[in-house]
Every structure is written in structure tokens, then in C-alpha cells.
Automatic annotation (TrEMBL), chains A, B:
EC number(s) on file: 2.3.1.274
Signal peptide stretch: none
NCBIfam families (UniProt xref): plsX
Main location: cytoplasm
Assembly and binders: Homodimer. Probably interacts with PlsY.
Native organism: Parvularcula lutaonensis
Gene of this entry: plsX
GO molecular function: phosphate:acyl-[acyl carrier protein] acyltransferase activity
InterPro entries reported for this sequence: FA_synthesis (IPR003664), Phospholipid_synth_PlsX-like (IPR012281)
Protein name stated in the entry: Phosphate acyltransferase
Amino acid sequence: MAMQMDRTALTLAVDVMGGDKGPKEVIHGAQIAVNRGLQAKLLLVGRENIIEEALAEHPIGDHPVEIQHADGVVAMDDKPARALRRSKDSSMWGAVASVKEGRADGVISCGNTGALMAISRLQLRMIEGIDRPAASALWPSRSGKAVVLDVGANVEVTAEQLVQFAIMGEAYYRALTEKERPVVGLLNVGEEDLKGNTLIRNAAKILREADPEMAFCGFVEGNDISSGEVDVVVTDGFTGNIALKTAEGTARLVGAWVKEALTSNLMAKAGAALMMPSLKKLKTRMDPASVNGAPLLGLGGLVVKSHGGAEAEGICSALMTTEELAAHPFLDAIAKTVASVNDRAKSVDVEDIAAAAE
Amino acid sequence: MAMQMDRTALTLAVDVMGGDKGPKEVIHGAQIAVNRGLQAKLLLVGRENIIEEALAEHPIGDHPVEIQHADGVVAMDDKPARALRRSKDSSMWGAVASVKEGRADGVISCGNTGALMAISRLQLRMIEGIDRPAASALWPSRSGKAVVLDVGANVEVTAEQLVQFAIMGEAYYRALTEKERPVVGLLNVGEEDLKGNTLIRNAAKILREADPEMAFCGFVEGNDISSGEVDVVVTDGFTGNIALKTAEGTARLVGAWVKEALTSNLMAKAGAALMMPSLKKLKTRMDPASVNGAPLLGLGGLVVKSHGGAEAEGICSALMTTEELAAHPFLDAIAKTVASVNDRAKSVDVEDIAAAAE
């Protein structure tokens, strides 16, 4: 475990122009984060006059701030290739560049995910031995939080990529929680006898044989993600994205039911009034904003993606997570583990996927 | 829409021996269902002495009941092939046979899913034009219930199978709700630009061009399942199974949070006491037992799978669903639509999956 850094020595770059809600929402989020104890210096990247206007509306006192002007904006619906071609003057490019040039320890953006991935890969490169970045989510669970990855960056993966996700998720979880040996599981369906799991079976085999250090518990099911018994849940980006959004929808539905129960009649309303403090805590717990901020793991620098539609509270959470991660550098740990596992993985005898499908 | 049948003229076959909780739980579920107004005659299939003992403990009065003796039991962990070979004297085989022979209008089993699929396919055959059965789930939503399929029967599917699932889900939803044109969506990740969706894009294209009657709304995301805006959500069995279990886990986690909020201190407890009636309704809504009972669609007969671990309440729900479906026959509707869509689908120009992957 790396030594914890002095947080006032950190700098976080913020792509102020990205996101659906506009620059003012981003600056408002920064203001809340500073009020809640964020210590890192903020490097605000975007149109100078807009940032200054937003800061006038949401002042952050004498907290260290630097503005880096960038004229361009990557649109939320730009294709990654197009964003790459014409983005070199954009706030997103500039914010990522500050990490590349060592002027910032991490970057956060609410902008276009595809463009952020492409711009980050181009500037920061991948960690040696990692094929593609994975988007990871913090997921509330009975024991606190679980890390789930990939939640949308890679719709199709190989067994080797799932192994890389497992190693990255483990290092990420360790950086966040200081738990030395996080429990890692591969997301699968319950029944053992089904076809189509060759990929996952191969990934499990490689993990078991090539990474004996990992506390790998084998396959887990959808309901295990929130059970608290597994810390890192590994899956492809298609399944992970659908699981994440399904959970958000479920929480929202149940939240509506709870609200209905609390206001259905006078007696219930009187009861709810007595319970106000407990209900407030419940509301905070159920607020998706409290877990906003997903690092794109595998890059040679810290890049955190916020929900495009995040409001100030969500942006604050993402900034807090980014500071936490910048203070516990884990990229070296990923690089070291990946190198040794990739090496040993070569001798693992995996099933032939094409043959198994027949 | 088919005419509704007189429910007292229906017979439901019950595989009494399947399930984790044993025959008494199944009979107890039948007792609750009868008390709540189930009208169909019950054909109880299993060991006669065990059924009689269970009926003595959970009597169902003068409700029409017939016992069909079967000596064998399919074990919960039997492989389908093994279950098929040695299962012809089992309660599962006997229960499905009663549908084949026209002595029952539907069958319900809490037993081994793989064995139930295999035994049902062998005896009841598939509907012409349907490749494989799909397991469908009733999913609570803002507007009532959505149907999601496949939730675990087919881990890998083709675009044509997704189209078949859509047609089956539409007919199933119509039978349950009498809504003439249910809204059908294909489950996908949010971002359009991702690879790996050739399969789903092809399915969407076929549905649009070959089934103009369907109210097909295109792609939906995980959070749309419970939003109430889509009635039938179509996906492969891997994704569907993980989405279903993830939602169950999320509901359980949020339920634990709610319980904690209600009992965290004296004031909260006093408030909760005032709210008791509303909270009871909330608890029922959140109980997975209330949506137990998933038909295996595509078979030439009505086969409903209950959770293996279902308790009496869940078995009651599954029996109620089975009666509802038996009273609104929809197998002919599936057959008719599948035939015409399959015919038109041949002229739809779909993408080459292999080429798109390059």
C-alpha cells in the first residue's frame, strides 16, 4: 500500500464545460466539495469568462484555484473519432493534458464518455499489459460499497480482459478502503450447466492459476453485488451497464413506494413526521448522487467520469472520490500485478471457445 | 383476444415433489390459493401417501382435487440429461404428461429448471417457428407490471430468437392484462456507438420491418424496465438473469435500509407504529413472492416455473398466475404471429455479424 499523500499538495483538473447541466452546475459541485473538506487545489479548465462568472455565483473563498482557458467544447453527442479530430482546443483535451504534463494528479469530467476514453487513451496511454480502459462503479452494499466493472466501456470482452478488470478492480478497491485482500467475483448466471460461459470459465481458470495472491471467490450472481460478501464484481461492459441501470431503476421504484407509504394517509404522515431524521438518512443513502464518479481504470493516469446528468451534489461526490484516489496512487500496483499475472497466464490451459460453442 | 374461459372448468397440474421446501410447502401454497379464490381443479402429482399427509395438515375443504401417483422425484441438482433418462416415473414427468394428454390446462413446478425445460420440450414440443423456450418474469413497474424475457433459459441467442421472444412476450402480456398493443423494447446499453450490438440491431430491424403490428419502441435501458413506459422487455437469458437477480438484491438492500430507518430510535419506532397499515402494503409490494411464477414460453403447452426456494405465499402467486394464463390461452396467438413474422423476416436485410465484428 502506497503512503498517503498530503492532500493539499494534490491538484485535480476539472473539465468545467462537460455535462448536461452546464458549467455553473460543475462549479457549484466544486463549491460544495470545498465546503465539505476537499483539500486539493482545483485546476478549472474551460472558457475563462464562463468560469469566472460561475465562480462569482458559487464562490469558493480562498481555496487554491487556477483557471486554464480552453475555447472548445466536446459536444455530448460527438462521436469519439470526431471529438478526437477537432478537440485539441477543448476543455476535455486540456484537462486530460494537465494530467499528462504532471500539472494535475487526476481529472474529472461529466462530458461525453466515448470522447473522454479516446482523448485519455491518446494522451495518457494504457498501462502496460492492459488492453482497454474499464469503467468502474461504486455500488452500495450491506457491508459498505462494492466495486463493479466494467459498467459500459467494453461491450465485448475476452477472458484475458476480464482478468485485467479483476486485477484493476482489486487495486482500486484496496486504494479506496485499505482492505488488503478484497474478495473478487466474476458475475455469472446461477445455473452451472448452461452454455456460453466458456469466456467466464476461462477467466476464472486464469485468475485461479495465475494470480494466487487474489482472494478470488469464483462466480457470483446479480443479487450478490449488494450482499456485502464480495468486494469487486467483474463483468463485461454490456452486462455491467444493464445491471447498474437496472439497480438504479429498482431503487427509484422502491423509493417511490416508500414515499407513497409515508404519505398515504394522515396517520402515516404523522408517523413520517416523527421519523424525519431517520428518513433523511435513508434518502441520502438512496440518492444515486452519493456514489457518482467512476474512474476509467487501465489508463496511465487518473481519469474519473461523472454522470453526464450529474447535479452539484453528484459532482461533489465525484470530486471527493477523485481526491481519495489521487491520495492513494494505485496505478503502479495495477501495473505490477498485471505484468506478473500476464506472465503466468501464458501457461494456463484454457478451453477453446470456438470448439466449446459447437 | 381469446374468450375468457370458465375457470371452474380448468385443471392445473401441480408437481408436488419439486422445490427446496418439500411437498408440504407446495400443498400449503395450494391451500392459500384456494382460500384466495383459485377456482381451477387441482391435479396433484407425486407420492400419494405424502400428498395425503400434506392435505391432512393443510386441508383445502371441498375444492376439487385429484391425486396422480408418481413414485420418482427429479433432484434439484440432477443434470437435465440424467433427469430425462430416468425420470419417466417422476412427479415432474407425470405433471407435464397430464398437459400433453389434455387432462390439465397448465402445469406448475418448483423443481429443477433444466429438467423441467427438457421434459417439457420432449413431451409438449415447441410451437412451430420457435427455436427454444424462454423463461419470462413479471417485473414490478410504475404502471403495474412489465414482462421480461428471457431471464435464464438461453445464455446465448440469435437475432431471430430475440424476435421470437418479443412476439411471445407480447402475447403473454396481452393475455395477462388485456392491453391490446403492449409496448415492446429491446434491452441495450445507453450509448449508441458501441460495438457488439449487431445482434440486437438486427433483431430491431427485423421487428420493425416484419412485424408492423407490434408497438415496438426500439432500445430500452436497465432503468426503463421498472419505469412503466415499456410493457415487454426482451433480452438474452444471461443479461436477463443477471438483471433480475440484481433487481432482487437491490430491493432487498433498500428494504434493509428502510427497516433500519423505521427502528433506528424511539421516535422512529413510534412513527412506524402509526404507519403500520401503509408499511404492511409496502412490505407486500416488496416481497418477491408476489411476482413468483414464470411461464416457459414457446412450448406447445402452459408450463409455469416457480422459484425452487418458493414458500407457500410464492407458490400461491404462481398458481394464481397459472390459472390466469390458462383462462386466456395465448399459445395460438404466438403461433399465428410467429408464422407471419418468420415469413416476412426472410426478406429483411440484416447486418453480417462476423463482418461487423472486424
